Each structure stands twice: as structure tokens, then as C-alpha cells.
Amino acid sequence: MVNQILKNDDTVAIEINHSITIAGLSGAVISHGHRIEVFDEQHQPLMIGQQYLLFLDNIPGTTDFKGVTSWHENSFVIADNQISQVSNLETPLGKGVHLDLSTFLNKVAMAINTPCKK
User: Fold this and answer.
1) How many domains does the chain have?
2) pLDDT band at 45 (very low <50, low <70, confident <90, very high)
3) In a domain, 66, yes or no
4) pTM of the model
5) Taken in order 14, 113, 100, 102, is the CA torsion positive or negative?
């Protein structure tokens, strides 16, 4: 469930208190009565009920979304007023690194609101 939007896309607007579909590298399906699970070892699956900061792009022609870059670079888990990357990789924050949530969100807000230099 979406509870906050830092920047929205005019082509397919995300709405507060609505669910969205995110295409990712891990997941599970039931096919012919069998559960099939696939996981990317570099990226932990997103868990229902957990809070995340995601950087997403719309998948053209759909109302679904994908990460703006590789999943390990744009998915962050929020817990106990701290933020950390979802992946087990060394970038972008570092494996096991936890940062202050307010400080991180302030930096994200500044980046979103600063025009790109040409």
C-alpha cells in the first residue's frame, strides 16, 4: 500500500492508499497446483507489511512499475527510523549499513527538487 509519494509521474499517477504492481527479479507463482519460487541472491524479496523507499519507472503501456535501475540500486527498507538497502551488495550504501531516515529523506528531497545540470 502506498503511503507517501515524493515525486509522481504524470503519465501513470500513483495514488496514496492504493496498491501498485512492481515487476521484479524475485517472486512466486502457482502453476498447475505447484508453487514455484525464484529469488535473486543479490536482492532480498520485498515483504508484505514492511515499509520501503522505491525509485520506480512506469512500464510503458501498462499501469505497472519497475525499478529505475537495477533493483539493488533503488530499493531501501525502512525500520526503526533507519533506512538500509534491500540488496546484499556493496553499493549503493553498503551491505548492512543503516542510515538515519530523516537525513536520508532530506537528501532525497533535495535531489528530487534540484534541476539537473546540462
Assistant:
1) 1
2) confident
3) yes
4) 0.78
5) negative
